[in-house]
Amino acid sequence: MLVVGLTGSMGMGKSTVAAMLRARGIAVFDADAEVHRLYDGAAVDLIEAAFPGTTTAGRVDRARLAAAIVKVPKLIERLEELIHPLVRRAEKAFLHAEAARAAALAVLEIPLLYETGADAGVDAVIVVSATPETQRARLRLRPGMDEERLNILLARQTADSEKRRRADFVVDTNGTHEESERQLDAIVAALMRRKAEAFERDWR
Questions:
Q1: Bridge partners of 27?
Q2: What is the pLDDT of residues 120-142, one digit of tens each?
């Protein structure tokens, strides 16, 4: 089974491309969605111990947590140290389930794939990309997003130009939905010709 990483900076269109992959019958593990599940359950006690006052009613209060850590990089790193092992465990379970059903291809959607070194555990990487102008316009539409928060979050991510350079494949989402679909069809066809090594090497 081929293991593929799907990544891209905020506002580039990862979720849209992930939905396109699912529509083609390809399973996609959403790391962000897993983090949200952890914030509602398994990670609550860990986060409250590390960041007192950031949980309420048995759930992580995302606004309080963001306010506590967003301007202090060391605190962000501490949060990632707590969460990443739990996400990795869920990714492994997902891949084993896909292998058990004899899937030819499984995708890990990981926003910080390069930043966390997760690219070492996949056979190929798809980067979703758009112009900086398109990216910022999309992100400004998100609730609670102001220029300061936007700049802080973008500063933590590897530059789009670097991601494109390191990618095996790029989906450019500046154009129409149909254009992105055509790009993705060509990428999936190319992926099917790739040799699968990562699952046996890194996920057993």
A1: 106
A2: 999 999 999 999 888 888 888 88
Convert 36-55 to b/e letters by CB count within 10 Å (16 or more is b). Answer: eebbeeebbebbeebbeebb
Going along the chain, which residue ranges are E strands?
A: 2-7, 27-30, 55-56, 59-60, 105-109, 124-129, 169-172
At 106 the pLDDT is: 98
Sequence-distant (6+) residues with CB within 8 A of 112 are: 7, 118, 156, 157
- The 3 state secondary structure assigned to 44-73 is HHHHHHHCCCCEECCEECHHHHHHHHCCCH
Q: Which residues of 3-26 are buried (b: 16+ CB within 10 A; e: fewer)?
A: bbbbbbbbbbbbbebbebbeeeeb
Is 141 strand, coil or helix?
A: coil
Query: At 163, which amino acid appears?
Result: K
- Cβ 104 vs Cβ 3: under 8 Å: no
CA–CA separation, 93 vs 196, rounded Å?
18
Phi then psi for 172, rounded to 5 degrees?
-90, 115
Those residues of the chain that have pLDDT short of 50 are: none
Instruction: Say if residues 31 and 14 touch (Cβ distance below 8 Å).
Output: no
- We find that the CATH architecture of domain 2-203 is 3-Layer(aba) Sandwich (3.40)
